[in-house]
Amino acid sequence: MSDDPAVAALLSEYPPAAQQLTLRVRKLLLRIIPDVHEHVYPGWRIISFRMGDGQKHQVCWLAPQRFGVNIGFEQGAELPDPNGLLTGSAKQARNVHIRSARDVDVPKIAALVAAAIELHRDR
Question: I need a labelling partner for 64 at 20 to 30 A (CA). Which of 26, 27, 48, 91 fits?
């Protein structure tokens, strides 16, 4: 399980396979987002990944599910998605659905995260 008690508490509500998949993606995000700050929002059941202070620079979030994990991007509709990973029809937010370890395509996920970082730097 996670060394962060807030992450461990959030993930304790999910099946072991979903916990492990969420932790795998979390580890990736912590590695590729510069100056990353992680915050668990138990009421929303998400782990937020931010650069700097405050919500203004939220890069993405993880939303554990019973059968996997979603990576959410608040401004996902503005992100380039040549690989077609993003789903959703909300005005702005988009998600990447990850259902198994095979879905963790590091270069493609890293490209979306890099685009989200650039989007926030431009604002």
Answer: 91
